[in-house]
Here is the input.
Amino acid sequence: MRTIPSELLDRVAKKWQVPADNADPKLKVLLSRGFLNELFQVFTIQNGTELSDVDVTVKRTDTSSEPAEAFALAINDGIASVKSKPLPYDDQTPWVHEFTVGAATAVAIEFDGYWDRDYVSRRFNFVTEENPWLFYVQSGDLKAQLWQDTSITLATGVTKVAAIRGWLPANGDQSNDQGLVVAYLKTDGTMWYRAYCIQSGGKLWEVERQVTELAGTCDDLALFRTNDFRLGFMAQVAGDIWWTLTTRNYAGMSVWPEFISAHMSGFAMSVTPIGYLNAQLPDEQITATATEMVINACPASYDYSQIEITGTRTGEHTLALECNYPLLNAAGQEALFSIVGYTVTGTAYGDTSHKVVLTIAESLSVVGAWDVIYTKAYTGIKVEICGGCTPHLENSTITATGYPPEHNEQISANIATMAFEPKLVSYLSADTGDEHLSAGFTNAMTITVTKVGGGDL
Here is the structure.
């Protein structure tokens, strides 16, 4: 605690003296904060003597929000594992172990994603996918793995690795995608990289390419993005730090969208007065006539399937249709009947009101069947079920038949084998009559029958 000098105590003791004696003491305190460590805050992720390599990335799922979660891929005692922690960072909240990746000597972790404009801050923010990519060196092989999916090998003979998401133009041709870039050092000290880019067939890992601009034996490496939309490669060569940059890849992202404001000028409006006419108009009258209106009072048990119609050929030019109910308005309805290949020229009643006879222009064979098609019409044929129930004949197809075919049969027979034996006739009486021979069949006759016509024999 700082002590108060005696001169100041004397002034305090004189606080009741007149101000003219300069005995009105005041204390002015100035507070100031230095800028040391204000731009960066350092937090401990994990303690241990076996830690060898670590990389960290953050997750942002919306351009208008701050990063919501941090992920770390670290090697402890030769085993790489993934940890996560919610943001904003709270030093009292521990890191959560997600899963173990496996043996590794170098690691890197990065999200794939895209850039989207935040219209509040007027800048583009990187929006990440749901899960990050893991890159780790295992027995000299560089492995790439999306979260806990199956890993793939990107390169061999690798010692160190770094990863970063390159620029993807938000306003332009996305074929200029720099991709998710993973750079690595090989055992000979050369730097190489591969990119996971948008291609015509989707996202693919491109072939590995060497960073020839960084000559010499590289001891370490790093990647970074610049604010002017470039991607940088850094390497430590013989104690010196070298870097090389790509070309700009912005496609209009650094220019705020144009805004066009328009307003009307020289606008004029004229009003036309409404004229009212005093006139009397006659009442309008609309007359409507109902046509083709049918009312039937049929019993509740009536069913159209009760109507049965059969057809028969009755002559060379006539077919008769017979219904199990009387038919009304059947004459002169030839326009409602049709037969494929034939012309119906007239209709008339038969010997009863149950029959309608169709006159056919063409000749009908004695034997055959004809499909007679009837098309329903409100002026067409009605079926009289009972008094007050006379529904129209519905669309129907009636099959009319001719005489059944005749089948003539011919049976032929022949005697296959016939034998006879003559015998002598003895006369017991004295009178001698005419002699004759009698023959008897000794073998049975065989008759062969052959069927030459149709039908059963």
